[in-house]
Structures are given as structure tokens and as C-alpha cells.
Amino acid sequence: MGSTDAPSASDDAEPGQGDVVEAAWQRLLHREDMDTRLVRAAYAEPLLRQLHPSSSHQDLHFSRCTGDWSWDIPFVMHLPGGRYLVAGPSRSQTVGEANTAEEAVALVVGGLPPGCGPAVVGRREELRRLDTVPPGQISGDDERRSYASGQSG
């Protein structure tokens, strides 16, 4: 079985969003079994760096919460020859294939859900409570849409 990097709520007494998310990124950036090009490209993208990253079988996943997976963000899988497949949010959905880590990151960013903001410390239930805010009132939506449209074509 592959390893996962989701911290439990008991890892810190009172962790802040930035602390939990940054610690998860640092673990991935320093793992020898990870594709460092991919992790670095994702970490360099501010819209992804604010999400909670994890890996399973060397796939790179992102979550809008730190206590479990939000299952609403595309993820990156490896293909033969150093290429990438961006799928999701479910494994049966294909976003597209990419030749480089940077292209894979752009596909993930283009597939972020409306209102996608910093990961919430907690579980999906906390996200559901916060997701009642209308998408147009959540910072980052305009930036995400303009970034994604600039990457296509």
C-alpha cells in the first residue's frame, strides 16, 4: 500500500491552516520517492500551495481540508515516459494528459472548483458549512478563472 501524508487532528494541539498545510508540503518536497519536479511545480503555484497536498502511490493529491480528503480537486498520476495524467476529482474522470509537470499543474488549476480557497483545518463537514458562501464572494475565484483561461490554447 502507498503512504499518505494527511495529518491527524491530534498532530498539533492548535494548528493553524498555514502550519498544517506547509508542513505537509515540506514532507512531500523532501520525500525521496516523490517526483520532485512535480511537487516543486505544484508548490510554486500559489493556488495549489494553499491546499493540503498528499500522495498515494506517488500520485499527487490536493484537498481543501486537512483532516481528510475533500475529493473535489483533480490529482496527478504518472504515465510511462515521464508524462502525466490529470484525473478527477474521481478516478473515472480524465482532465487531460501533460508532457511536463508545469502543464499538469496548469490542468489541475483549471479544474479547481469555484470558490476554492485555502485548505480548512478540519474535515469535509467544516467545508460543507463554509461552502454556503456564494462563489462570487470568495477571494481567488477571478484569479483561478483567468489563470486557467490563459493556459488553454
Q: Can you tell me about this structure?
A:
This protein is an alpha+beta fold and 153 residues long. 35% of the residues lie in helices and 16% in strands. Strands 3-4-5 form a 3-stranded antiparallel β-sheet, with helices on one face. A two-stranded antiparallel ribbon has the order 1-2. Strand 3 and strand 4 (83-87) form a beta hairpin. Helix 2 (36-44) packs across helix 4 (101-110) and helix 4 crosses helix 6 (141-151). The N and C termini lie far apart (38 Å). The model is unreliable at 1-14 and 137-149 (pLDDT under 50).
Radius of gyration: 15 Å
Helix-and-strand structural type: alpha+beta
Q: How are the strands of the largest sheet arranged? A: 3-4-5
Share in β-strands:
15-25%
Top keywords for this entry?
153 residues; two-stranded antiparallel ribbon; 16% strand; disordered N terminus; three-stranded antiparallel sheet; alpha+beta; globular
In summary, what is this structure?
With about 150 residues, this protein is of the alpha+beta class. The protein is about 35% helix and about 15% strand.
Give the secondary structure arrangement, pairings included.
Elements: H1 17-29, H2 36-44, H3 46-49, E1 52-56, E2 59-63, E3 75-79, E4 83-87, E5 94-98, H4 101-110, H5 124-130, H6 141-151
Antiparallel strand pairs: 1-2, 3-4, 4-5
